[in-house]
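Data deposition worksheet. Section B asks for the primary sequence of the deposited chain exactly as it was used as input, without tags or linkers unless they were present during the calculation. Section C holds the resulting structure in token form. Section D is free text for depositor observations; keep each observation to a single sentence. Incomplete worksheets are returned to the depositor.
Section A, Depositor: J.P.
Section B:
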Amino acid sequence: MADQTQSWRTGVNKTGLPNSTGDFLGFTHHGDRTRRGYFKLGRKTAATTFRQKAKDLNDGRRRIRNAQPRTEWWKTLRAKVVGHYRYYGVSGNYRSLRQYDRLAHKLAYKWLNRRSQRKSFTYAKYQRFLQFNPLPLPRIYHSTYTLSPV
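Section C:
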């Protein structure tokens, strides 16, 4: 009986995994532990939502790759990335934000190279382009611990 009470109170089973999860508003809510070992509600981007956002990002880049000049193309990509960070930038979700950041860089490199028949960017040239035109870094915009914007 004491063992069951302990697992209910901490929200994790004997293996240390969360007992139950649920998706709501694009987040997967799950039982997690604080650094001191106490129970807390953890949030991360839902897998289905992340896949859909990745598909949208890819389709959007493909649709406008030749329709806009590169400067406008890059501004729309920045706006899309910042919008994602502002909505999903909650405490405990940094790993998913970083994953989206890597995906955005990968797709930008891919679609910038498909604007003509020859490869317009080597990876070194793309890195140099990023030095002068960086994409915003992922950051937490909403702290769920203080209930205020960061």
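Section D:
The helical segments are 2-10, 47-64, 70-88, 94-112, 123-132.
The first strand starts at residue 21 and ends at 24.
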